[in-house]
Amino acid sequence: MVMDHERQRARYVAGTEGAPPVPPPGGYRNARRQSWPIVPPGAPASGTTSTPGAPTATAFDGSAGAGGAAGGVTDKKPANALGWVALVAGILFALILLITLAVGATDTLYGVTMLTLQLVVVAVIVGALFTARGRTLAAVGLAITLVFNVATVGGMSALQTSASGSYDGMKTDEQKHEEAYPGIKGTDPQNALAQQSLEEVQAEADSLFADIRERITAEFGYEWVQVGDEDLRPERNGYGGESMLIEYTSVGWATTEPIQDYSVKVEVMAVIDSVVAEHGLPSLYSFNGEYSGIDPSMIEKLYGSDDPRDQHTWEYYTENYPDPMRFYANIYDLSNDPSGDFLKTREAQNARTGEPLEGLQMVVIASAVLSEADRAEFEEKLQEYPGFQ
Fold first, then answer.
1. Could you read off the pLDDT of 82-123 as tens digits, one per residue?
2. Shortest CA distance to 150 belongs to which of 183, 182, 129, 119?
3. Mean pLDDT of 271-286
């Protein structure tokens, strides 16, 4: 019996050099036959076959990713809370900007609060971008924020405000009321009513100029030319608006010839001093003189030298305080300008106003004056501002 088995085995393995050895009789120890069903050729690749009591065999088509499940079903995780926060923050911030734009609050858009809020929103969005599950929603929030931001919406609001002329913004009724104050903050409005009116200052300036021109021409032979035009400019009231008071600048008058001799300059100023005295004004005060009280180094910087004999500018002044009129008389002398720097200044001024480069020039300035035509309205408006100054 054993012999027959050996012959049969020998016949089985004959000519099989290099092949794996035949299992021993009875098979390998603990060997177990595969109990999974075999999928025959031609069966659907994604199909499943189940046998009672046996595991289910599943065919894979290779299309599922690393996170995919059996049978091609993907297990996608939802976005995290930070992603939703970033998206909602971007939307809310855009709505806040649009609402602010709608009410015309341009000042608020460029305020510290709005800029800080934008930085917070951007920080939240950037944080969400670094998380895998919040990146998509954060990207949407970032896109919204890039479109609707302080710079873009603020620019639109500024253009809208400029086009409509509505600069009130978020001012309260009290602030708007203060803006219409007819006087000047910190100044007693009764001063404007008690002092010379605009018309009186204009008349006094014309009379003073006429007398000075006549005297100077009679004694020195100088001719005159008018410089510039009269200027009336509303004074600010200190509450963000314009008052009813005016800053008045008269036309200027200038000699057509230079005055370069020191002794002639002294005589010219003496004549002007006598004329202003006749008009009830104090004696002329010299800004460039040694008794001006100004530091000599500053005098040299302003007038070219601390010695009047070498100065390119003489500047004299007087006023009729408590009335508002201020009178200025200057002499410009380019012969005392060795560097040529002052010449450039005078040439620039000549290009603006057409005034002569050298010679004597006069002008009158009066601040916070009230026109006679506005006096009644000024007094009426003051009734709405008890205690204001």
1. 778 888 888 987 888 788 777 666 666 667 787 787 788 888
2. 119
3. 96
Phi, psi of 224 (to 5 degrees): -125, 155
| Interacting residues of 221 by C-beta distance below 8 A, sequence separation 6+ | none
The counts of H helices and E strands in the chain are 13, 10
End-to-end Cα spacing for the chain: 137
How, if at all, do strands 242-249 and 359-369 pair? antiparallel
User: Could you tell me the pLDDT band of residue 42, with boundaries at 50, 70 and 90?
Assistant: low
| Percent of the chain scoring above 70 in pLDDT | 74
Q: Which of 317, 331, 335, 338 is nearest to 361 (CA)?
A: 331
State the Cα–Cα distance between residues 63 and 382, nearest whole angstrom.
Answer: 86
Query: How many CA atoms lie within 13 Å of 37's alpha carbon, on the beta-carbon side?
Result: 17
| Range with lowest mean pLDDT among 12-26, 92-106, 315-329 | 12-26
pLDDT in the model for residue 260: 96
> Which of the two residues, 362 and 186, has the higher pLDDT score?
362
Q: And the tokens for 206?
A: 């014309």
* E strands in 190-323: 224-227, 231-236, 242-249, 252-255, 285-286, 313-319
Give the separation between CA 216 and CA 267, rounded to whole angstroms: 10
* Cα–Cα distance for residue pair 342/313, rounded to 1 Å: 9
| CATH fold label, 190-374 | TBP-like (3.30.2030)
Alpha-carbon gap, residue 253 to 228, rounded angstroms: 9
Residue closest to 45 by CA, chosen among 27, 59, 63 = 59
Residue 92 structure tokens: 């809310």
Looking at per-residue pLDDT, the higher value among 21 and 19 belongs to 21
Could you tell me the residue ranges of all domains in the chain? Answer: 81-170, 190-374
- Residue 159: CA count within 13 A, CB half-sphere: 6
Distance CA 349, CA 346 (A): 5
Predicted confidence at residue 124, as pLDDT, reads 85
Helix (H) or strand (E) holding 253: strand 252-255
What is the sign, positive or negative, of the torsion defined by CA atoms of 255, 260, 262, 264? Answer: negative
Measured CA to CA, the distance from residue 179 to residue 236 in angstroms comes to 9
- Of 146, 144, 149, 141, the C-alpha closest to 110 is 149
